[in-house]
């Protein structure tokens, strides 16, 4: 049991290193789109959740959220106030709800995929299907919750910062989900299958030795 815990801590440390490396590497973890950023940092969080369980996955999600908080504080875009209480743009400023947006969805990205994967395996014992659905589900957890919270807690400020009428903000939110969220989810599903298949096979082989 001690060896297993040590092994898990080593794996968590490696995932943390990958997340931080992606966060500080330009155009890798956070891809600037001018008005916002697309991200693929959620992928190691999803994989960590599936391989290490929801406790460690949730911690990796917290690290993901922390990198987002720091990135939006020190390298902001026009809408960074929704992700950090330490940044303001004119009359728009972040607050407590910024912390909810930046951390809660990301922590859940480290929890939800584990249960999706386990649930899918019980329904149909097919690793490829289970991993793919878990990857897509984890990615959409991030996108849907972040954009929903932005609409709920910062609707008016977000609309003004993006220079769109408040009446059309819902459509803007939907377009962001479609343009950013769906491709991110597809990529997450494909990479989760490809990477987890190898890692699960390696882990099982190591356990049998």
TrEMBL record:
Keywords: Membrane, Transmembrane, Transmembrane helix. InterPro entries: ECF_trnsprt_substrate-spec. GO terms for molecular function: transmembrane transporter activity. The chain crosses the membrane at residues 12-33, 45-66, 96-116, 128-154, 169-200. It holds the Pfam family ECF_trnsprt. This is Membrane protein. It comes from Acetobacterium bakii. The lineage of its organism: Bacteria, Bacillati, Bacillota, Clostridia, Eubacteriales.
């Amino acid at each position: 049991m001690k060896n297993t815990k040590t092994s898990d801590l080593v794996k968590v440390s490696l995932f943390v290193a990958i997340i931080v490396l992606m966060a500080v590497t330009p155009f890798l973890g956070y891809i600037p789109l001018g008005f916002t950023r697309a991200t693929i940092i959620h992928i190691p969080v999803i994989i960590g959740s599936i391989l290490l369980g929801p406790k460690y996955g949730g911690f990796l999600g917290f690290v993901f959220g922390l990198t987002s908080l720091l990135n939006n504080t020190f390298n902001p875009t026009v809408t960074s106030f929704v992700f950090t209480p330490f940044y303001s743009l004119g009359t728009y400023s972040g607050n407590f709800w910024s912390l909810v947006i930046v951390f809660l969805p990301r922590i859940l990205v480290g929890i939800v995929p584990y249960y999706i994967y386990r649930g899918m395996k019980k329904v149909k014992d097919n690793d490829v299907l289970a991993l793919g659905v878990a990857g897509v589900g984890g990615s959409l957890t991030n996108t849907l919750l972040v954009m929903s919270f932005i609409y709920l807690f910062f609707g008016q400020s977000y609309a003004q910062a993006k220079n769109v009428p408040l009446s059309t903000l819902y459509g803007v939110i939907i377009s962001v989900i479609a343009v950013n969220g769906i491709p991110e989810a597809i990529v997450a599903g494909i990479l989760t299958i490809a990477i987890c298949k190898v890692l699960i096979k390696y882990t099982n082989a190591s356990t049998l030795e």
